[in-house]
């Protein structure tokens, strides 16, 4: 019987796993212990999420008001992609990957946008949310119940505070134990299952199941159990990030979106919290030196913070051959990493932990019934995620550097992505192009990115129709929201003072 689970590694991935498993197994008699090294700090820069995080937090029974106030949370309604297209052709350019569905008002507006020759911004044409983002409005009002939204939204937060917040919830509500120890080795039985974790004091800690949340080191799934790593660095070229935390003023407006600004060898994230900005310069070391990256980061910040020293984070791009081997499952960076674009790290960690919790084995025999299927499903998620992120680069018409030119080479694209892009040059993407339940990025995500980057069908399959009524309805709703929704910071101040309604 599986009676004792060890989650090795804290941080966001470890404590997400603890909450998912704690919630699912609370009445099972299974004991869960999260073991955290006192000497290894978490990466702590994954500060953006996607809307599915709301479902997880609500399922855990977390108060959204408490979460917002304790983790310096701001609302995220979009990713604003800046200069991902050729400036000479398009001038200074941007588009929004919004969290509202593009067909809230029906598919007619998309058809009209295609038929009229794409002169307008796609997200602005079909959505009420684009204008709200550009006016720094919140996605809800103080009267909107927690986890409900007038516009779709996710969160930005302080990653270290979020991990601590999740930890407190898991220990208080799901009886998860928290142990500080340095795990140096493991003992395995003759079948290759881990039976004991050996700490720095030579204590043998007995466990029946191990969740490896040890980060890029993959200390258990990789180093101890020998599961191989599928390197994707030849396809996704960015491999390094340097980050800074930049102070802001209490009356600064807070953009309700992540800003992703492209540069000659990658891109820059810019995330505004209530009292600071998290800024990260993502680049490929093959195409840009560290010194030049530092200089360009400071230039982006107006050379106002040259006294601050950026933190360098090498990125290991790829994923494990298997995420579940014997009685060990990797979650988080030990499982794999794409790069920070589109907040995929927390998304896949949350998905993987939730999937494991749904069919957690009770015996070793049960592992044989569920592990292969788990590996297939999570592996599919990784493949589709790599395709989605790679698409951002390969459909860009930028040619101003070797980085952007090399991203267009098709020899590193998956067959599925090549076929999809060829089809979408002639046919508009449709729901049936995304048939799997495990497509974490679906039709709406692709429409915003493809059409935002002017990747539209050459022979458009559209029908001319009179959509004036739909366009009028959309504009009425936009005008209503402009008058009703508060500014982003105004709502956060009210939540801090009054809290959100529970229902």
Automatic annotation (TrEMBL):
<dbReference type="Pfam" id="PF04820">
    <property type="entry name" value="Trp_halogenase"/>
</dbReference>
<protein>
    <submittedName>
        <fullName>Tryptophan 7-halogenase</fullName>
    </submittedName>
</protein>
<dbReference type="InterPro" id="IPR050816">
    <property type="entry name" value="Flavin-dep_Halogenase_NPB"/>
</dbReference>
<dbReference type="InterPro" id="IPR036188">
    <property type="entry name" value="FAD/NAD-bd_sf"/>
</dbReference>
<dbReference type="InterPro" id="IPR033856">
    <property type="entry name" value="Trp_halogen"/>
</dbReference>
<dbReference type="InterPro" id="IPR006905">
    <property type="entry name" value="Flavin_halogenase"/>
</dbReference>
């Amino acid at each position: 019987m599986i009676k004792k689970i060890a989650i090795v590694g804290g941080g966001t991935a470890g404590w997400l796993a603890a909450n998912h498993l704690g919630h699912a197994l609370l009445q099972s008699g299974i004991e869960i212990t999260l073991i955290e090294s006192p000497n290894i700090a978490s990466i702590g820069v994954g500060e953006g999420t996607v809307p599915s995080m709301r479902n997880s937090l609500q399922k855990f029974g977390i108060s959204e008001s408490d979460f917002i106030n304790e983790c310096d949370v701001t609302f995220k309604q979009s990713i604003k992609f800046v200069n991902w297209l050729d400036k000479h052709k398009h001038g200074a350019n941007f588009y929004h990957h919004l969290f509202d569905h593009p067909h809230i008002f029906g598919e007619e507006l998309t058809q009209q946008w295609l038929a009229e020759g794409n002169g307008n911004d796609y997200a602005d044409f079909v959505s009420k949310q684009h204008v709200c983002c550009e006016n720094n409005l919140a996605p809800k009002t103080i009267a909107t119940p927690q986890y409900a939204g007038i516009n779709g939204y996710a969160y930005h937060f302080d990653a270290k505070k979020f991990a601590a917040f999740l930890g407190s919830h898991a220990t208080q509500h799901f009886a998860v134990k928290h142990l500080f120890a340095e795990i140096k080795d493991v003992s395995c039985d003759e079948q290759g299952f881990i039976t004991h974790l050996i700490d720095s004091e030579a204590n043998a800690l007995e466990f029946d199941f191990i969740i490896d949340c040890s980060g890029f080191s993959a200390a258990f799934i990789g180093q101890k159990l020998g599961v191989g790593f599928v390197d994707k660095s030849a396809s996704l070229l960015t491999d390094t990030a340097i980050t800074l935390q930049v102070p802001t003023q209490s009356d600064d407006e807070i953009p309700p979106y992540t800003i992703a600004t492209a540069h000659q060898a990658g891109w820059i994230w810019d995330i505004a919290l209530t009292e600071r900005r998290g800024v990260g310069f993502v680049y490929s070391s093959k195409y840009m030196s560290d010194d030049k990256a530092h200089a360009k980061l400071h230039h982006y910040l107006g050379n106002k913070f040259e006294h601050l020293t950026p933190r360098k984070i090498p990125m290991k791009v790829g994923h494990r051959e298997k995420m579940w081997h014997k009685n060990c499952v990797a979650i988080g960076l030990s499982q794999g990493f794409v790069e920070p674009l589109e907040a995929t790290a927390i998304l896949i960690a949350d998905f993987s932990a939730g999937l494991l919790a749904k069919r957690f084995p009770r015996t070793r025999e049960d592992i044989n019934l569920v592990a292969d299927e788990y590996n297939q499903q999570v592996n599919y998620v990784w493949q589709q995620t790599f395709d989605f992120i790679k698409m951002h680069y390969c459909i860009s018409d930028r040619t101003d550097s070797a980085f952007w030119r090399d991203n267009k080479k098709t020899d590193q694209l998956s067959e599925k992505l090549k076929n999809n892009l060829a089809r979408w040059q002639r046919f508009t993407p449709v729901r049936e192009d995304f048939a799997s339940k495990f497509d974490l990025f679906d039709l709406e995500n692709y429409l915003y990115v493809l059409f935002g980057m002017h990747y539209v069908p050459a022979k458009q399959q559209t029908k001319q129709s009179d959509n004036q009524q739909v366009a009028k309805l959309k504009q009425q709703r936009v005008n209503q929201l402009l008058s009703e929704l508060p500014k982003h910071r105004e709502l956060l101040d009210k939540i801090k003072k009054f809290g959100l309604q529970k229902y």
